Design the sequence.
C-alpha cells in the first residue's frame, strides 16, 4: 500500500471514529437525560409555567386566588422527567350558565393572544397551549370558583423524587 493510500485510509478511519464517538455521546446523553433530547433545569421548568401564568393573568385581568407551583413527575413512578405545574383560583359567577359563558369568553380572548386549543390534551376543562405549556380553564360554579391549571413541558431531567420540593405559593405580580 502506498503512503498516499495509507494516509487516505487513516483519514477515513479517523473520520469514522470521530463520527461514532460524537453520535455515541449523543446516544448516551439522550439515555442519561431520560430520553429528553433538550432538557431544562428545574428553575427553567418553573419559569416556563410562571411566565405562562403571568401571561394569562395579564391578558384576562384575573383576580388571582391562591396561586401554587410545584414540580410534578411526568409518569406514575415519580421519576424524571419532571415539569413545572401550577394552579390558580379566580372568582366566577355562582350561576352555572354565567360561569360557563365567562370561561368561553376567556378562551376566545386567549386565542386572540396566541393560545390555541388542543383537542389531544385531556384536562379538567378546555385546554389551550402556547410555547409548550398547557393551560386548562374550568369552572366550579357551586363554589363561585374558576380553576386555571398549567402544565409545563416534560423536560426537567434534573429534578428527582427527593428534590422536587413541596407546593409553594407564587406571586404573579
Sequence:
Amino acid at each position: 500500500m502506498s503512503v498516499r493510500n495509507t494516509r487516505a485510509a487513516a483519514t477515513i478511519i479517523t473520520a469514522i471514529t470521530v463520527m461514532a464517538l460524537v453520535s455515541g455521546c449523543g446516544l448516551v446523553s439522550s439515555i442519561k437525560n431520560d430520553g429528553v433530547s433538550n432538557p431544562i433545569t428545574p428553575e427553567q421548568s418553573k419559569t416556563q409555567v410562571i411566565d405562562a401564568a403571568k401571561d394569562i393573568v395579564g391578558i384576562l385581568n384575573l383576580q388571582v386566588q391562591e396561586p401554587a407551583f410545584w414540580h410534578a413527575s411526568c409518569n406514575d413512578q415519580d421519576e424524571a422527567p419532571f415539569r413545572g405545574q401550577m394552579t390558580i383560583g379566580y372568582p366566577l359567577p355562582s350561576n352555572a350558565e354565567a360561569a360557563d359563558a365567562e370561561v368561553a369568553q376567556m378562551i376566545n380572548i386567549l386565542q386572540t393572544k396566541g393560545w390555541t386549543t388542543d383537542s389531544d390534551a385531556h384536562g379538567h376543562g378546555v385546554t389551550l397551549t402556547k410555547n409548550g405549556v398547557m393551560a386548562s380553564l374550568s369552572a366550579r360554579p357551586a363554589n363561585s370558583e374558576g380553576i386555571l391549571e398549567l402544565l409545563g413541558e416534560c423536560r426537567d431531567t434534573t429534578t428527582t423524587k427527593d428534590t422536587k420540593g413541596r407546593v409553594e405559593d407564587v406571586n404573579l405580580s
In short: The mean pLDDT is 81. The first helix runs from residue 3 to 32.
